[in-house]
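Hey team,

Filing this mostly as a record. A colleague (T.K.) asked me to run one chain through the structure pipeline before their review meeting, and I want the input and output archived in the tracker in case anyone asks later how it was produced. No errors, nothing strange. Just documentation.

Input sequence:
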Amino acid sequence: MSIKQVLKDKKVQFASAGISEVDAELILAFVLGVERMELHARDFDLELEQVELLDEIIAKRISGKPTQYLIGHAPFRYLTFQVGQGVLIPRPESEALVEAALIEIEKIHSMQGQSSKTPVSVVDLGSGSGALAISVAHEAEQKNWPVTVVAVEKSDAAIEWLKRNIAALDVSVRVISGDVLEVLEGVKCDIVIANPPYVPDGDKLPELVIENEPREALFGGGADGLEIPRRFIKAASSLLKPGGLLIMEHHESQPLLLEAELSRGYSEINQNRDLNNRPRWISARREAE
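Output structure:
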């Protein structure tokens, strides 16, 4: 069976179910064991077993299971992360946080000069699958920028995925299990990067998300969703050296609330928008106490 006709048929099937055509391509590429873009570069013939597997996965996707869980991975920046039940699926909106961290790492190294390159210390709070921490470690290594990266996570299920990704992607990231306010006592770092649970209570999320991804990685607590983000800010305040940078993702309703929260103890507070022009993350520099 020609892959081009199969792909065309499945896209129509997905469209009628209100599902992105990209999902059809990702699933088909998974069944064939190829990269998604190869589907458009050459033709393939599907074996009967592959057709049956394709139909099985598509039926599960239409019934309400995320594509990333069904195929076992999700792309994020330049890497592919293993994901499944119990861990939040990495999203493109979070990629900008990695870019901001890399800009800060480059800035710190340029200030050090060429003769002495002390590793820049980065702590990722609420690391989940490790998308932020691992991407920072990987891309810094590619640029020959010395870094030390620590990933903090308290969910046992998420830690399994985090460790699996660190091993599979062969990066140097230290994993710390525990609550962000109860670990790394006495540790000081240059950068804290975080994507905490931040969805306000009562906020309507897509059924695909709420029925599959862990609630504890989504909802931040309270009507404003800031109970957990405030804990992350408190943890960052203890961790950051004077002049250290906090980079944190948030809900589109929260930038002004977070700006007020950070006005005590932080300067250079900058609000940033995502690719859809929605308020998505904030950065702030730790002041000396």
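Quick notes for T.K.: The two ends are 68 Å apart (CA to CA). The chain is about 40% helix and 20% strand.
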